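During the second year of the project, the team shifted from modelling isolated chains to modelling whole assemblies. The rationale, set out in the original proposal, was that interfaces cannot be judged from single-chain predictions alone. As a representative example for this report, we include one of the complexes processed in the last quarter. Its constituent sequences, exactly as entered into the pipeline, are reproduced here:
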Amino acid sequence: MSTRVENLISARGLGFGYPGKAVGRNVDLDVRAGEVVCLLGPNGSGKTTLFKTLLGLLRLQAGSVSIEGTSLASLSRQEIARRIAYVPQAHAATFPFSVIDMVVMGRTAHLGLFAAPTEADRAKARAALDLLGIADLADQAYTRISGGQRQLALVARALAQEARLIVMDEPTASLDFGNQVKVLREVKRLAARGLGVVLSTHDPDHALATASRVLLLHDGGLIADGLPREVLTPERLNTVYGVKVTIETLSEGSTVCAPNFGA
Amino acid sequence: MVEGRATRDDETALSRRAAVLAHVRSDHNVAVLASLGVGLVALMLAAISIGQFPLSLTDMAGALWRALTGQVPQGQADTVLLSIRLPRVLASVLVGAALAAAGAAYQGLFRNPLVSPDILGVSTGAGLGAVLGIFLSLPVAGIQLLAFAGGLATVALVYVIGALVQNREPVLVLVLAGVVVGSLAGAAISLLKILADPYDQLPAIVFWLLGSLSSVRGAEIWSAAPLVLLGLIPLVLLRWRINVLSLGDEEAKALGVEAGRLRLIVIAAATLMTASVVAVAGVIGWIGLVIPHLARMLVGPNFNRLLPAALVMGGGYMLLIDTLARTIAAIEIPLGVLTAIIGAPFFLWLLARGQEGWS
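Output from the structure prediction step:
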């Protein structure tokens, strides 16, 4: 019919921040199905604020956001949640919900106001746990599993939500080396299944390894948007982080970023 | 044993095992809830029979039969059962169930297991209303009405303050506003105590502030029960969303829940339940704090199961306390004293144990 690939989310001239405090301005951002878009920027550059604005949790300060072609402002919470799933940083919950209960909460946007999840919803939650290889955690308390397992459980919850776009706020923060790789591997698999993923990270290596596109956020504005190897140059990383780095492509094909610790 | 052939496919086996486990688990919860219900009925029968005028099961059956078939009550046993013992037992269960359910809802809402139904000042507000009623020498019904109105008005004031303060964590603002307005109401209570007649009014005030069911008759139950039910209905209907809200505002919103609106409904429902029972029974602490914990230890934090468990356990606990209050000494012991004597050490034990069900 048409060769145009629909944007799952599309922001134009976006200004974002908290009431009375602007954090960023003039951001354009598009995510298509099957893409992993990596947002890189130093602490305080506004990555989380930008995400919250995209999710409709903070009011737009300027510009527009449309989700699958519909304006964000015209969508209800439930309609947004059916289109975008949010994976917060792994947190400690107040109450010891079982992992399966936690994941089933992803079904809320598909339930009636007074309904509780049915067996079909539980089956979807279990399928999501299966997909991430943590089905055996289903009946454990979410408060008793490790940080990496919690992060995977939150990803499973986003899958159970059945949204086409998943927004992940630093999914690898506070995870050990092995769990970081595991979570990122799952992110790539999700994109391969046709979902769109936006994630923020502090590690250029993660962007180089997983991203289809990289956005570099600096001083409240985007200073680059493109392919990882084009965006992540030693010059730009020096500008943004004030650190000298070497970027090398290894013999097996992957590209890595090594900071220079010397004087 | 169950699915021997499925072992070829590890993932399928794993998910089936999870499904089987989930079934076992939900059966276990059904069994727990059923035995709690049976325990409550047994406790009610025991509480009806115990007292200065002991009643046997035969007495109870006869009196109930005569009452239900419209016959004239016969003898003292019928009078004790129908006009004193039964209303009091039913009132205990109603009061305990309402306080525990409201406590469970508030703990989820404020994401804090240390929260009790009076966090937003409903008890102190109701206390102020009742003390004012006693001070003005109003009849019992007037005192109850003022207590009810005082409880609702206090929480409404706290909520409006919370809504007016912008740019801050809404839950924190609510809690702090509750503390401030509550202590203001507490100051007004102290002032009225000093102004009250020390021989006539002051004992009544003190007794009311410590909670008692000794004056409860059928009329009080008929006035409180419909309001408790009215508050309970939204909690039952929104049981799943209350789980989601306990993850925090932002996460709940991202999962598709209108967090602000839901919070208003839950506060209104839990406040209505608390205010209507505080109006007839006085201020009774600890139940709304301790019982939800106990219920969570038994059936987990999922509000689907937590709510019925808290209702039944709250009712049973209040009944136990009230039966002790009227039987262990020559005088009636105020309920607030007993719930604290039993509740405080229990809470410390919970704290030391640091068990699951705690935060």
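The two ends of chain B are 37 Å apart (CA to CA). Chain B touches chain A through 40 residues (CB under 8 Å).
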